[in-house]
Design a protein that fits this description.
Strand content: 25-35%
Order of helices and strands: EHEEEEHEHHEEHEEEHEEHEHEHEEHEHH
Mean pLDDT: 94
Number of domains: 3
Low-confidence stretches: 151-155
Number of helices: 12
Helix content: 25-40%
Distance between the termini: 23 Å
CATH topology of the largest domain: Uridine Diphospho-n-acetylenolpyruvylglucosamine Reductase, domain 3
Radius of gyration: 21 Å
Shape: globular
Strand order of the largest sheet: 4-5-9-7-8
């Protein structure tokens, strides 16, 4: 049974990594472990548990920045921000229930290291766009830091962009500073009923290209949702503008109020509308919005039981397929073809993840660059070896 190292301070973290480096021991890096079932299975010498590095270090609501330790749960951060009517604008999703865990177990640093963002990704950007600075330890046992507590104070390489999405394979962070934003006074949702996938994507793209500042655009079977946020008079005017813009679609229209809207978009954020069977394989497909319906159609022709819904105005497709020995990865990536999209296997049994490329294969030039970056940060392959393939 793998034993666990649980540092309680940045210096203890550095010492743990230094010991692992000298001992040749690989480390399974975890915050709260809510996403351990995402990625290739790993066989590591020790678990490096960061949950002992928890808590808010500093919160400056006037400066729109919060600084926290690596093991701090997202729920704790969100509760603190709500007291000052602020929010994490990139809406980090809670994938715990999708991955067979309880809700509310994820950490903010885990979401950043996965570069995970919810429906507001369209208007607010990805997780990496909100990471102002951090400190941590690289695979050479060296403590380092990057950025700070304000935007645009980074000189040289923007390491925040590099580490976001690395899934803990380059360095172990002990502290991060993240930009926050004021929460909207009102949230309303315009529902278009009865559109097929292609018509829904066309309507979402039209809405996103309009001056009405749509902050969320998703299509579920039978209904297409467009989110408007802000102060009441502005929300009302923009909703009317959207109705007029989309009247030509012929779709029946309904509206959700603030409370209903917040619940609806929280479900979209956490992939709840997929409603997939517990043993279904779940894929996340990123693609040009107009290509999404064709990709889904090709897959449904091969696998009629496939289920899907669209977020990010059609640029993100959540797909559930019946359980199979190889997760149908050849079919999924074949359906994407030359569209410029890519697919990530989010949920599958461990035996399947051990043989299927979980993350989309990189072109040779990009793969070579990724290898050089890994050599620079973690030449001994201490951190999460094999998780990304």
């Amino acid at each position: 049974m793998t034993s666990t190292i649980k540092p309680r301070s940045p210096e203890e973290l550095r010492q743990a990594v230094e010991w692992a480096l000298n001992d040749g021991t690989t480390l399974d890096v975890r915050g709260q472990g809510s996403k351990i079932a995402l990625g290739r299975p790993m066989s590591c010498g020790q678990v490096l548990d960061l949950s002992g590095l928890s808590g808010i270090v500093d919160y400056a609501p006037e400066e729109l920045v919060v600084t926290l330790r690596a093991g701090t749960p997202i729920g704790e951060v969100e509760a603190l921000l709500a007291q000052r009517n602020q929010m994490l604008a990139f809406e980090p999703p809670d994938l715990g229930p999708l991955l067979g865990r309880e809700a509310g177990q994820g950490t903010l640093v885990g979401a950043v290291m996965g570069n995970l963002a919810g429906p507001r990704r369209l208007s607010a950007g990805a997780a990496r766009d909100h990471l102002l600075g951090f400190s941590g330890v690289n695979g050479r046992g060296e403590a380092f830091k990057s950025g700070g507590k304000v935007m645009k104070n980074v000189t040289g390489y923007d390491l925040s962009k590099l580490l976001a999405g690395s899934w803990g394979t380059l360095a172990v962070l002990d502290q991060v500073s993240v930009k926050v934003l004021p929460a909207p006074d009102q949230t309303r949702t315009l529902l278009l009923l009865g559109l097929d996938d292609a018509a829904a994507v066309s309507a979402m793209c039209a809405a996103m290209g309009s001056p009405h500042e749509v902050s969320g655009a998703a299509h579920l079977p039978g209904r297409t949702a467009l989110r408007i946020e802000g102060v009441a008079p502005s929300v009302e005017a923009r909703l009317k503008g959207l109705r007029d813009l989309l009247a030509g679609t012929g779709a029946a229209m309904e509206e959700l109020g603030t409370l209903e809207s917040r619940a609806f978009w929280r479900e979209v954020r956490d992939v709840a509308p997929l409603g997939a069977a517990r043993d279904a394989v779940v894929w996340k497909i990123s693609c040009p919005p107009t290509e999404g319906p064709a990709i889904v159609a090709r897959l449904k022709a091969l696998r009629p039981a496939a289920e899907a819904f669209y977020d990010w105005s059609g640029g993100l497709v959540w797909l559930a397929l019946p359980a199979s020995a190889d997760a149908d990865h050849v079919a999924v990536r074949g359906a994407i073809g030359a569209t410029g999209g890519h697919a990530t296997l989010i949920r599958a049994p461990e035996a399947v993840r051990a043989v299927v490329p979980v993350f989309h294969p990189q072109p040779p030039a990009l793969a070579a660059l990724a290898t050089r970056v890994k050599e620079s940060f973690d030449p001994r392959r201490l951190f999460n070896p094999g998780r990304m393939g």
